[in-house]
Specification:
The structure holds 2 protein chains of 2 kinds.
Chain A (H helix, E strand, L loop, with lengths): L3 H15 L8 E6 L2 H5 L2 H14 L6 E6 L11 E5 L4 E4 L4 H13 L10
Parallel strand pairs in A: 1-2
Antiparallel strand pairs in A: 1-3, 3-4
Helix pairs in contact in A: 3-4
Chain B lengths: L3 E6 L2 H5 L2 H14 L6 E6 L11 E4 L3 E3 L7 H10 L12 E3 L4 E2 L7 H4 L17 H6 L4 H9 L2 H11 L11 H10 L6 E6 L8 H8 L1 H15 L3 E7 L3 H16 L4 E4 L4 E10 L8 H8 L23 E5 H13 L1 H5 L9 E8 L5 E6 L4 H8 L9 E6 L5 E4 L9 H6 L8 E6 L4 H15 L5 H18 L7 H15 L3 H5 L2 H19 L14 E3 L9 H5 L5 E2 L7 E2 L9 H5 L5 E3 L1
Parallel strand pairs in B: 1-2, 7-8, 7-11, 8-10, 12-16
Antiparallel strand pairs in B: 1-3, 3-4, 5-6, 9-10, 12-13, 14-15, 14-16, 17-20, 18-19
Helix pairs in contact in B: 6-10, 6-13, 7-8, 7-10, 9-10, 9-11, 10-13, 17-18, 17-21, 18-19, 19-21
Chain lengths: 118, 598
């Protein structure tokens, strides 16, 4: 390593990677991954969110986790977006494609996508 | 795309409880379930709550799993990692909110962690110590960079002085002052040495830093080298820490690969490199001059001071020798400044201290608290109190060099000076808790046995004096104590303290002196009544008949070979302690369980 800037490059790259361990986050995206959810394609939705967040460089502020079946199996895949402000938005019958719009309009833009809501 | 990190403690404690097998099983199961690209298993250093290990934490949820076993792995992967259902039976069992009964699910919410301030331990349990990139992500080597490119050596020393950092190895000498002496010494060869010999029984603070965050030590040594004008460093680590040795070797190799050790660091012309030396099992080699003598290839024996190592140390050159925990604080002080460090702690003891909690305490493990935290807070709030409903008796700080602190001093704020004032010392951080079932004379004997065994033999006061003290303690605990023994102990103790060559001898009498100060009555019971109040010293155990259980059948009195038992038929019998030879024949004979030995 010849200079401090080389150190900074590594630091910035790694901070994104281990941001997940801070357990913090302004926005939590929770994907239903019960058996019904997985059957309905929740894995693809989950992956779409994870990749999308990564691509938009939002790893420092957004976490993506799963939860169990809620009991509304016909509405799966269900995704809840929980914000630090206390606003919780529930999206139903999600797909990988719809995930991208949620990221763009809700996560980045701050405006929930009414079309997808329960 | 990695969406979850599963952290598993890979310190010595959890490793001994099988955490490596768990990590391997986890990786295998994750691969089998097709989750390899989504979940990363991270082996970290010590989290601190050793009593509940093996510890596993799942992020981003922050779920805190305790006492995980290999058999739990399939369930954790299937339920939690795949389906998001936390395995509640493994979650740390603690009520967070009394009103709702809601449980604490993350580390930060537990009583154990709430009052802690992890500065020296900030990376332990959070990063993989075998990946230098993870250390860098936590501002690793940023301090070294700042020092080399923006500060002059004397500015670094001034910062260390202003911060108020004092040596964490036990003596509490101001670090900045030590560095300034070495910087002022004129020589074209100087050394930086890290004392990683951690010899106090029950202490594992330094071990955890070395295993969990070795780069902090390496970076601090390089900073020290720049400040005093040294280009070579040695880490003297005890061979009994194989995991620490391995982690240090990996860390040094990785630092060299990145050019953070070696020639021309950050293109500033500064050279610094580090070598490891392994201790071979001698407690005395934790004493600075004996340690340096050992590195020089000779038998570890201390030298008289002055001259101090900062003036004439390793190979006769100016040397600074610092403790692991002291060094672990330094990069942060450089980055955050002296005022930041001074904002924590007490007037004369700034910063935090890491303690290794052991003995009769619920939450055995590693804690770090601001100086000034009281013993009561550490033992009862963080430590979870005394198990089995027993009563607190004393806490030993400073290991074989320290003293015991009785209940009346539980509210003493812990710092260097306040502990000395009550007859103990900070020491390196070992904190052993004792309850009503511990005998204080036996405890003093335990520590003295240790120091007698470890005495290097060079100076008469220690070699012979401590041995004589131990002889007296042995007589006292075996029922042969004599009038005048206590006075002899005190006289020997004071003369050894005044004349021994090094810290080992000078402090070896401390456990005896401090137990005499607060528990003199126990010594007197041993000597004058031939009785051990706690019931620990086997030779003083008394055989007694419980009058509530005794039926007066006379079977015991008939079998007693010395006629020590007396009593009328159908009335409770008694044993004459002056005649009893403790053969136990009466105990065996009694059909009513009325006779016991304590």
């Amino acid at each position: 390593m010849k200079s401090l800037s080389e150190l900074e490059v590594i630091r910035d790259r790694m901070q994104d990677e281990i941001a997940i361990r801070s357990g913090k986050g302004d926005i939590h995206i929770v994907v239903g991954m019960g058996t019904c959810g997985i059957e309905a394609g929740a894995r693809d939705v989950l992956n779409a969110f994870v990749e999308g967040i990564e691509k938009e460089g939002l790893r420092n502020t957004v976490t993506v986790t799963q939860e169990a079946c809620e009991g509304k199996c016909e509405m799966e895949p269900i995704v809840t977006v929980a914000e630090k402000s206390g606003r919780n938005t529930k999206y139903v019958k999600m797909t990988a494609e719809k995930a991208l719009r949620v990221i763009a309009e809700h996560v980045k833009g701050g405006k929930p996508v009414a079309d997808y809501m329960a | 795309m990695i969406r979850s990190h599963v952290l598993i403690c890979s310190g010595t404690g959890c490793t001994s409880s099988g955490s490596q097998a768990i990590a391997a099983a986890l990786e295998k199961e994750i691969e089998a379930k097709g989750l390899k690209d989504e979940i990363e298993v991270v082996r970290t250093g010590c989290f601190g709550l050793c009593a509940l290990g093996p510890i596993m934490i799942v992020y981003p949820e922050g779920t805190f799993y305790n006492r995980v076993t290999e058999a739990d792995v399939p369930e954790i992967v299937e339920e939690h990692l795949l389906k998001g259902r936390i395995v509640t039976r493994l979650v740390h069992d603690e009520i967070k909110d009394e009103a709702t009964g809601e449980k604490a699910t993350t580390l930060g919410e537990t009583r154990f962690y709430k009052k802690q301030m992890r500065l020296a331990l900030r990376n332990c349990g959070l990063i993989n110590p075998e990946k230098i990139d993870e250390y860098i992500s936590r501002d690793g080597y940023k301090a070294l960079g700042k020092v080399l490119t923006e500060m002059k050596p004397d500015e670094v020393i001034k910062l260390m002085l202003d911060s108020g950092l004092r040596g964490r190895g036990g003596a509490g000498f101001p670090t900045g002052m030590k560095w300034s002496f070495a910087a002022k010494s004129v020589s074209d060869k100087k050394y930086v040495v890290c004392n990683a010999d951690e010899g106090d029984p029950g202490a594992f603070m330094d071990r955890s830093v070395l295993e969990g965050d070795p780069h902090a030590v390496i970076e601090a040594m390089a900073i020290a080298g720049y400040a005093i004008g040294a280009d070579e460093g040695y880490i003297y680590v005890r061979a009994e820490y194989p995991i620490a040795v391995k982690r240090l070797q990996i860390a040094i190799a990785q630092a060299r690969e990145y050019g953070l050790l070696g020639k021309n660091i950050f293109s500033t012309g500064f050279n610094f490199d580090i070598q490891l030396r392994l201790g071979a099992g001698a407690f005395v080699c934790g004493e600075e001059t004996a340690l340096l003598t050992s590195i020089e290839g000779k038998r570890g024996e201390p030298r008289p001071r002055p001259p101090f190592p900062a003036v004439k140390g390793l190979f006769g050159q100016p040397t600074i020798i610092n403790n692991v925990e002291t060094l672990a604080n330094i990069p942060q002080i450089i980055i955050n400044g002296a005022d930041w460090f001074r904002s924590v702690g007490t007037e004369k003891s700034k910063g935090t201290k890491v303690f290794a909690l052991g003995g009769k305490i619920v939450n055995t493990g590693l804690v770090e608290v601001p100086m000034g935290t009281t013993l009561r807070e550490i033992i009862y709030e963080i430590g979870g109190g005394i198990p089995n409903g027993k009563k607190f008796k004393a806490a030993q700080t400073g290991g074989p060099s320290g003293g015991c602190i009785p209940a009346q001093h539980l509210d003493t704020p812990i710092d260097y000076d306040s502990l000395m004032a009550i007859g103990s010392m900070m020491g390196s951080g070992g904190l052993i808790v004792m309850d009503e079932d511990n005998c204080m004379v036996d405890i003093a004997k335990f520590f003295l046995e240790f120091t007698v065994d470890e005495s290097c033999g060079k100076c008469t006061p220690c070699r012979i004096g401590t041995r004589r003290m131990l002889d007296i303690l042995n007589r006292i605990t075996s029922g042969n104590g004599e009038d005048g023994d206590i006075e002899k102990l005190e006289e020997l103790a004071n003369s050894i303290k005044a004349s021994a060559l090094c810290g080992l001898g000078q402090t070896a009498p401390n456990p005896v002196l401090s137990t005499l100060r607060y528990f003199r009555d126990e010594y007197e019971a041993h000597i004058y009544e031939k009785r051990c109040p706690a019931g620990v010293c086997k030779a003083l155990a008394r055989i007694t008949i419980d009058p509530d259980k005794c039926k007066g059948c006379t079977a015991c009195s008939r079998v007693c070979p010395v006629g020590a038992i007396s009593g009328t038929v159908k009335q409770p019998h008694t044993i004459d302690q002056t005649k009893c030879i403790k053969c136990g024949a009466c105990m065996e004979k009694c059909k009513f369980g009325a006779i016991s030995k304590k």
